[in-house]
């Protein structure tokens, strides 16, 4: 069950949000009474309530907004109990002063905004002993193992316990706490107005992470990166999992570089079933893998890990995704000009980073004559030496025409949408133009290429294709690429993030 926090200054706004949530199927809300401006009218908020309530009134020290006296705060909580509220949240230092009364269930809570304490089990037992119906522990996660210790504490608790780690490192615990036995999790009403770091909006919790479908047998997948908040992979993979009816969830794991080793060593404790790997970990993960495909071997970087027993297998899906997208675009977009990918004889790859390297490898494997072109000539030369292709200076990119132009730079990406790495006057109708940028899909380069009569491959095509290859590796079946594409478009539209 998802409990949605309502934190508004005016009573009528609290009542309106409560009604809205109940109408949308939410069965528990937390009223943050500390946000109310002026006198808190507890009776008014609880009268005719459309679904059960947790009454919470937090001091600043516990991350709240309460500005009145402690006496007045406890009076608010006692009033809620007398009014028969379903749950009251009592911090551990006052739980002993407020006695059980009527039907109201007691949530005894503890917050730590700095760290996750060592002895979580001891803390949980101390809170349980304060006549708790439910224990709630929310602590700052500074390390992925903090998350694991928290979830394991929830699993071992004998009194129902919600364990949540705060901060973006801790975010997966919010989705997984129920899998380990918590009676519910917390989410915010508004995606933009978060009450604590790492929180998740209720729609995302319900629709993207499908919290209510996550159970003890749900397999855990995710993307490991730092930062990870901008990643669109959770939207894409979770949509495909839901569509396929697979009991698995895909989460964003923020893991700083210096914590990666421990995170991978501890994979079996979650247990993790598969990971997408992105910046800055694509090379570093290789020191842990026990099996790798030929592309990982040649590129020296992995973007996919699969965990089975003691085996960690590494794959790189970017190169295949690039070539498969190109093949699809050529066959799907009419019979004029090139008929299939074997007719692409030459390609110019703009950029010399990870994406350029993967695309260049993929194209070379199809015997295409590849030229890499970069602002920083040394980087281009290095990629060319690894891939076995040519390198030219950035200023030389228009000198000779190519069958295929690939943009593997961020030029044209949101918010710099009026930029292109390749001017329209140099585009020719026989060219295939492949822009790896996916936010937005219709970059200036894509628009100008379309206007010039070129065939197009977009970054969305490639992103969806690489996610689909990962899905196939992990789940042994093809996802609906249409569902993935739709989810990616929705996520980019709502995120308005750089990529
Ligand atoms: P990266 O490793 O940072 O490499 C970026 C490359 O772009 C570098 O060669 C860089 O040159 C060059 N560059 C940056 N700004 C430039 C500019 N203003 N003009 C000319 N060159 C410029 O990044 P990456 O991981 O390869 O990703 C590159 C882009 O590929 C991303 O922005 C993303 O849009 C796209 N991508 C798409 C997918 C997909 O599935 N669709 C997957 C991965 C990446 P310097 O070395 O001179 O800085």
Task: Give your account of this protein's structure.
The chain has 16 helices and 20 strands. The chain has an eight-stranded parallel β-sheet with strand order 7-6-5-4-3-2-1-8. Strands 10-9-11-13-14-12 form a six-stranded mixed β-sheet. It has a six-stranded parallel β-sheet with strand order 17-16-15-18-19-20, sandwiched between helices. Helix 5 links the parallel strand 6 and strand 7. Helix 8 runs antiparallel to helix 16 and helix 15 packs across helix 16. It is elongated. NADP nicotinamide-adenine-dinucleotide phosphate binds next to helix 12 and helix 15.
Number of strands: 20
* Ligands bound to this protein structure: NADP nicotinamide-adenine-dinucleotide phosphate
Summed up, the helix count is 16
Average predicted confidence as pLDDT: 93
- Between the first and last Cα atoms, what is the distance in angstroms? 32 Å
Beta-strand content bin: 15-25%
Q: What coarse outline follows from CA principal-axis ratios?
A: elongated
The CATH homologous superfamily of the largest domain is called: Aldolase class I
Name given to the CATH architecture of the largest domain:
Alpha-Beta Barrel
